[in-house]
Backbone:
């Protein structure tokens, strides 16, 4: 008892829909839209400009952490808990 393909009760053809939504053979707006994806507006440049100053801020923060670690004395070196706290 062999059955054929299941009948489509809605009349919707998925294959025809996928073919219709594909990229058109000729896009008249292709040249007008090209500037959005090249040069200043490339994906890398848009990502980089999304976080202005992140590189400088990271270096400045790392420098401050190193300065604080090596040059600022917080007065707690060598003290154990409970000693000298009267």
Residues:
């Amino acid at each position: 008892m062999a059955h054929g393909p299941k009948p489509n009760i809605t009349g919707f053809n998925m294959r025809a829909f996928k073919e219709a939504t594909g990229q058109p053979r000729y896009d008249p707006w292709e040249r007008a839209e090209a500037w959005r994806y090249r040069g200043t507006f490339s994906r890398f440049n848009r990502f980089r400009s999304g976080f202005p100053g992140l590189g400088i801020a990271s270096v400045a923060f790392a420098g401050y952490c190193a300065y604080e670690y090596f040059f600022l004395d917080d007065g707690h070196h060598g003290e154990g808990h409970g000693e000298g706290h009267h």
Notes: The chain has a mean pLDDT of 78. The CA atoms of residues 65 and 72 lie 10 Å apart. The two ends are 95 Å apart (CA to CA).
